[in-house]
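Bug report (template v2)

What were you trying to do?
Predict the complex of my protein with adenosine-5'-triphosphate.

What happened?
Run completed; filing so the output is reviewed.

Input:
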Amino acid sequence: SDAEEFRNRLDGKTVPEEALKKINEELKKLEMLETGSPEYGVTRNYLDWATSIPWGIQGEDNLNLKQARTTLNRDHEGLDDVKARILEFLAVGAFKGEISGSILLLVGPPGVGKTSIGKSVADALGRPFYRFSLGGMRDEAEIKGHRRTYIGALPGKFVQALKDVKVMNPVIMLDEIDKLGASYQGDPASALLETLDPEQNSQFMDHYLDMRLDLSKVLFICTANQLDTIPAPLLDRMDVIRLSGYLTEEKVAIAAKHLWPRQLQKAGVKGRQLKISRKALRDTVECYARESGVRNLEKQLAKIVRKGVVQLLEQPDESITVTPENLSSFLGNPIFRPEALMQGIGVITGLAWTAMGGTTLPIEATRIHTLNRGFKLTGKLGEVMRESAEIAYSYVCSNLEKYGADKSFFDKAFVHLHVPEGATPKDGPSAGVTMASALLSLALNKKPKANYAMTGELTLTGKVLAIGGVREKIIAAKRQNIKNIILPEANRGDYEEVPEYLRKGLKISFAEHYDDVFNKLF
Ligand code: ATP
Ligand code: MG
């Protein structure tokens, strides 16, 4: 009978007293109920969940660091600092004898390998892996379950996870923890804290089961694109590991070693039937897949493989090699051209940083007419960015003489400052020095030095203040082959933390005051 089966399921499990009492009560009830009655169904369902929990069952951790390193290296190219951090984390666990009480947070732009690193950690430990996204969640009940009085009530995601993985100590990955937000019913931070916090989660309460579960042996790995929107009490308890965007060479290496072979294998094509040259891979990156991560690159390679397969079917004896020359016959016209940077009077390259990674941000200033004084701004700029444009304008207006420009220049200049591309929203104070430089270049009627990019907040008195995302910005500059970068002096420490291979070939100058920017640029 059903009741018997449920009882058997508890064999070998260590059910806590409170839960056992509840299960036994329900079992008794089940045996008294009419098999066909709705009540029977509800009770049966409940027991099905309650007895599927792997009460007290724990897999052994494999805390062999050498093997963990091998697993991480097998699945991932580069990412040396991330791998090192993960290994440290595992080493601490090995030392203590268990990995619990910590929450890892992998943060970085889309497609840089966060999910994939998380999976490797589970592999390395020999723990089952369960993953779900918090991004679409609207309701606390998805985490903590519905009360049983609801028709069609279900337990929350964590109970579902435990049922699935059959141990109490899996690796559970919570994707998009930064997107759990406003539209959520109830208090997302406290619901999650109760789940993740090692101080509270040995007593995690699921509303459907109406029992306490011990989640303290679970290793939680969260992923996010940015830190800003993560509630502070949660963030406080996490070990944050940052992943950044990839350089062109890194993407080519990842493609050659991982993405391309995987696509071939998926399509059942042999490496000798369909080849791609290193140069063609590089062109694929530069002309079709410029973003920080490699997910779109993977899609482009899949597209090449699909087209290749068609050709192979038509001419089975041939082998195909994709080269820079025939690349566009696989991928169509290039989406990006290896463009020259925008240059000229009033045009300056800034560096910006968003949840999608770093990018270069050109800023243009022109004089529209000389009938009167005025200033206008376009480019879908947020409030903070508009204000920093006004600061830049005021600063340049009041210091024209100092920098050798006609002090009445702006009296007869209606100036337009634009930040392309016009449709992409932008915000933040870090383009202050860039906007000031564009305006000054205009006033001086002088071209800035070529191959420079800059970032820094500007104050009314010309001080240059620290900005965020140094590493992402450096990567963005390198991707565009920019060699000279001006950073705020206050970010020197951040720059020194950027790995050596990223700093190679760059000339960095640090600015404390706008004077320092001016001296480099003009
Ligand atoms: P999102 O924020 O969009 O969820 P993500 O950071 O989780 O992105 P993944 O899904 O882990 O990205 O990575 C996308 C793809 O790129 C995967 O197929 C992954 O294996 C591959 N990949 C990313 N980085 C590397 C790397 N360094 N070496 C090998 N493969 C990589
Ligand atoms: Mg992911």
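What did the reviewer find?
The radius of gyration is 29 Å. The first strand starts at residue 103 and ends at 107.
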